[in-house]
Records
---
Amino acid sequence: MDAPVLKKDQLDGRDGTYIVDKEIPETALESGTISPNGLKTTADGKTILIPQPSDDPNDPLNWSWVKKHTVFAALLPGCFLTDWVITWGSTLFEMQAKDWHMKVPAVAQSMSGSIFMQGPGGLLAVPLCQRYGRLPVLFWSQLLTLVFTIGATVSPDYASFTACRTLQGFFGAPPQVIGLSMIHDMFFFHERARKINIWAFSFLIGPYLGPFISAFIAEKLWWKENFGVLCGFYAFSVLMVICFGDETLYDRDGRRSISSSGFGRRTSLLLGIAGFRECAGRPTIWRVTKDQYSLLLRPYLLLPTFGFVTFITMWTIGIVSTVTHFVVPPPYLFSHTAVALLFLAPMLGTVAAEFWGHWFNDFLCNRYTKKHGGKYEPENRLWGVYPAWILGIIGLVVFGQSLQHHLHWIGVAFGWGLNCFSTLGTTVAISAYVLDVFPQHAALASSWINAFRVVGGFTVIYFQAKWAHHDGPAITFGSQAAIVAGAIISIVATQVYGKRWRARFPAPAAEN
């Protein structure tokens, strides 16, 4: 049997399709790494590597399994902490209100600026990481967020506290954006869905893990000491980047790549000095910014992100920011410990979605390629949205009805858990789709996923509590469920017309 003849655009997905699986002849090299037609494969010789790695050992695609996952692990604390740092204070509003002689809902608005600034922070990080490298953006992001976390801890009043919190959101956002690029830099097509699942899990469980820990600490420590513990978590993230982070940006067009070797070189990479010196020939800040905003003209990005992600995540963020308003007063009368334990519900929902996505997304991909002779269309990824979307609708209804009729707190927890399962399950499927259709613009596309996610979260804080107080939780969360149900039109349209849209509005030329 002759080896399949594959075109370059089919190997890297630039034409919107992938040839991800071909039967490799038994005459393939015994090493199982190169097929007779010169294409590199996995060690067992069964899967062609997409994209094809270079022969350079410094190519991140050629790094060892241990090296890849060590660098990936250095990214994850920053992803955990992006929303963790913002929602950490959601269980401390009552303490702060006493210090500042304010009402609790007014104190809660200190979160809104930090949520909103995650959008601009993520958008600004993209041109910098495309021009100067991923590592310095990640390092400065974590270091500066640590600085402003310390500032929030020692703030003497509401105004200075809110200013520091706002800057926390701005500087803490990059890990949620550049993570998709780092996955693209280091891992092959057949590995990416699971890595995206882990990456998305890390920043979507953060909003619940932070309050879970801070509520326990609040039993013993006042809010300032509580925030001091948060400083320790960010210091750990900075140390992880320093000790285990590495530059994954690699130039595949023949220009000089950024690589680390030696203490001085590594320090230069971390600070961005090396990236600044070696940026000649790389895309300019203006070009990346122009490409970044031009992506919004592509309906196959705008619809699944703004049209769906905004509405599936805004209610999740709204619940996190207001849940104590519902369960601390009568009839539930939750203590700090009880509030902390309630946050186990969204965490369990997110963990369940992690296990589900770890299996289901690969199942969808493998089934499609087997049925279509090894050819893969990115729109198939979006089938992973529907099961999680349905559970999200059910979760919002159960949550609202439980609060409205003062049902057992298990109903509140169960509804919340289903909603959070939905958030991760849908986000992973959409992120995988976006990476498939924009493989050379992963950070650019990812920044819009993050931006539209936080736009909804920023706005909902201002009206969630008032809405529930005016109309009752049943109508409030039932209406939110109806909005989520209607948002599925964006996904359906993308699946039906996505291939035609990709042909009509192709992605900009690759930057690096």
---
Amino acid sequence: MYRKLEADYNFILYVVQISLGMIKFSGEVFMLKGKTVVVGVSGGIAAYKVVEVVSRLHKLHADVNVIMTENAAKFVTPLTFRSISHNPVITDMFSEPAKWDIQHVSLAMKADIIVVAPATANIIGKVANGIADDMLTTTIMATKAPVVFVPAMNTNMYENPIVQENIKKLSERGYIFLEPETGLMACGTEGKGRLPEPQAIVEKICKLLCEKDDFRDLKVLITAGPTQEPIDPVRYITNRSSGKMGYAIAAQAQKRGAKVKIVSGPVNISPPYGVEVVYVKTADEMYNEVMKSYADFDILIMVAAVADYKCAQIAEKKIKKKDEKLTIELVKNPDIAKELGKVKGNRILVGFSAETDKLVNNACEKLASKNLDMIIANDVTQEGAGFGTDTNIIKIIKKDGEIVDFPLMSKLEAGDRILDEVIKLIGKNGVDNK
């Protein structure tokens, strides 16, 4: 009862403030003209604040379409959002549509971005586990547009390991999260879990729609993960690569508008949403797939930790223990980046150099010998920069000798910084492979 009364009071206050012009809207008036924003409202008390989010988006000339869950309609009426957005509000998956189309498919296809605010633990959990049982979750599943979750819930609920695991799972798949704020909660406690201010939410939407569209019309080919070189039917040679760095770059490139393909070695992570993935095992398989595909791409980013050597002969049956020593003859694998360097034309070719010593010297040697445009070097002996972590510490070294150092950051952030430098190279050199 307390929550409902507080929601009613705050909602009325917001509507009055918006009507009287007491809440100001920053930014260019036509900033979002031509953009379709789908706002998904789930059942949290912070739903009343989303009225202002929709109003701000409409004032920026976005085409705003609101989907409400059944519980959300208990906090704010659909009529309110319809009046503010000037569009029908969808609440029922099986209601008669205003015009004939399959609504979740129609909205999913025309959306430039989907924003879920407030994003409850329930809606996050559903999407993380592939449940699509209402119009909002179904639309999210059907879209290829960026999806932004804006969590708002009780502090203890937000910090619950299951909720955090679901957030991490979705983040790794390319979904975007706007961190909740810390403050007094509706339940009377204080902590992290408050919905960010409407202005912050709208600014995030504007940034994603207007500032990170720089890879649109570009095609990016990325290799990721380790390779496995068989010794016999049950054993193989491999390395510690998890594929997280390559997948992070792919997720960020896709968010920025690129068409992305990953050629991936064996990994235990899910691919980013909207990214094509071809799985391979051996270095030869990866080489063949890359050389078959590279001509269709503008940017080639070789992140995979490809095994340098493979067995000269692969045993047809499991090798049994006999002697104290076992000698296996190894031969070199193809150097994929080096072969691309010979045929890349005007494409941008980026390599990676994971080292344990002489970081810059070794990376620069690879940069020159493989005809790379840029190489990302990291010292895998540093804490937080090795294989399998969610973070990295990178140096970006360019062909002209410029070195850009970055501190410890998440691999998703590092992926964005790498793409920032790639786009600078495109602006300087251009790409024309048609």
---
Amino acid sequence: MDWNNFRLTSRLNNFSSELIEEIYMILAEIDGVKNSWQLTGKLLPQTIERLTHAVIITSSGSSNRIEGNRLNDEQVNDLYRNMRIKKFRTRDEQEVVGYLETLTLVFANYASIPIKESSILYLHRNMLKYSDKDARHKGQYKFGSNRVEAKDQSGNIIGVIFDPTEPHLVPKEMQELLDWYAWAKLDSNKHPLILAANFIFEYLAIHPFQDGNGRTSRLLTNLILLQESYHFAAVVSHERLVELNKADYYLALNRTQASWKTDFEEIAPFLLFFLKIVRLQAQKAIKFLEEDNFEYLLSEKQLALWQWAYSLSPKLFSRADAIAALGFPARTVEACIKKLLDLNRLERLGQGRATRYRVCKPGRAMVF
């Protein structure tokens, strides 16, 4: 295959000079965060774990709500805490729990999940493992038409919004997409986020599964971002930002689909939407350190002591009070207090056995 002249490559060469300038301004901002903001060097592993936990909850709710699911974040969190049940009553619950498990897997194992057919089939199958209605087709390419249709209020079809790849052509086109992406990562001079957007759009246009294509595309987006070292994807939800901009998402997708497989394919609408969402992730991530969010610098036990101390404010407390209240070993309490003293969040009063502590008054604490 001559990948240099392949359709997926050619459409990345159709940009005007003005569009190229806009694209690379966005990419420069995103990569500025990627390259200069050393997340793992400033946030403790326990803190990253807490943030990632929150992202998994948020992303699972958002990705499914984009497709019509009705569960809110609180309900999703309850499901997360009870995933060991393995039996869920409603379709909404079944879909969300499958996404929760699969996104957790992606975040934990992204470095060892290759972008190939078997991985995509596995992600789809795992995502739908609890969904009764999807039992027939999970982890398998579609067997019938899944074109996007416009319907009137009575449910009658009045037009076709988009007609994706026919079922019998899906294996061929998916293999071409995967082979092109493998080639492009090695031999193309295009930025990895441009390649990612191109890959995700083509996947959505092929629409390879009977159902679950949008959700699988967002799992793949997280996987690719993490593999390309955009680690802020684990602390700011991509799916939530898409949900908040759902109208723009579908508008960009529809505009790009309108020229799909024509002589002049226009990838720009979806590409710009994709890059702007990733830029929003980067902007929100950097605020964790630029704003007064010092709690993100604390371990789980340090945070527990801080929250307890803050609840007492302005009362004084002793080391013994903290040990009794939190049940931590004395050395752990001492270490937590020292950390908060170093951060100017606590102040020490007295000496020896008479030593007491209290939360710093407003204005005394340092701003991070």
---
Amino acid sequence: MECEILCIGTELLHGDIVNTNAQYISKKLAEIAIDVHYQTVVGDNPKRIKNCFGIAFQRADIVICTGGLGPTQDDITKDVLAEYFGVEMVYDEGSYQHVKNMYSRFRKDFPKNNMRQTYFPEGSIILNNPNGTANACIMKGEIDGKSKIGVLLPGPPKEMEPLMDNEVIPYLKQFSKMTVYGEKLIVMNIGESAAEEMILDLIEKQTNPTIAPYASAGKVIFRITAKAESEERCIDMIKPVKEELIKRFGKDNAYVTETGKVEDRTTRLLMEKNITISVAESCSGGLISSRLISYPGISKVFKEGFVAYSNEAKIHTLNVKKGTLEKYGAVSEETAKEMAYGAAKRAGTDIGVSTTGIAGPDGGTEEKPVGLVYVCVYYKGDYKVKRLQSTGARDTIRERAATSALELVRRCIEK
């Protein structure tokens, strides 16, 4: 079956709110092998909303809509759905009690215009919304002689997501007998174009499983996806493809993680081997520490993080020699080494990792241009330094520095 996602809200078009709903719904539908071929965003305009519904029902079996279930006159999503299925809007006592109870919980009077939230297309399945006043609904019927399903969900993610998980997905599962399962392979030290070229023959011949590359800051991720009657069968189908990719890219450069994050593997190694770590950051400004402490239990090995942005901080906090800074500059291999060593000694850890660079947009020179970053790992008396020359916006350069630092820690531990 094919699905179209229709998200309603002028705030989405203006960029005031990021449309996370479409992403969330797409991921959930992929898990039950329902394909999404179109995502549409439309503002709070009745004429345009009706037009989008018409287009969506022409090209999809299922239309999932978020937003437009509120109490105001421009919240017409339910009315439009009823119109397309050729049914009347009818009063629902359960929804009336739901809204009434919600306002009682808020200790507020029931506004008259909230009565709009008690009417639904006749014959629809009403979904109780425990996190807001707007109940959702599912409508199944025929449009122009073809079986269609319309799903209306509230716009706020905290309301939409539980309803999608607990009500919509279980309902839609009956229409899909297949399972979709995917694994993410991280590839480091090889650019996106070069990486794709290395496996182009596999991509051109792919059917099931499929291989989809996409670049992220400092890495390339390949998602390997299989569709079969069970997750176990999907895993069996993915295994030889995954092994072939790792063989071509090299074990040092390619590995599988659940989320596609470099720190998945790095934190697991640190905790499994009980290797303690401290971080000294200049240009990355705390990104490495932040990504490490996202993992439960990391306090076992992560001891301290230092953001030593100025030269004075590097000297006083990390014991970087003044002479080193004067001779080589803050952005140098020598300073990166002393920062990593200083962090490890001050925190008493096995590993010290550092970043120092020019994130821009200003401050670069011909000798040291914007995007130049040095990353260093001090471990067991040895130093591993990586010189990066990145392009892009300030935040992109910082993200790449943090990713490279976490990746260098992994390589040092595994070797």
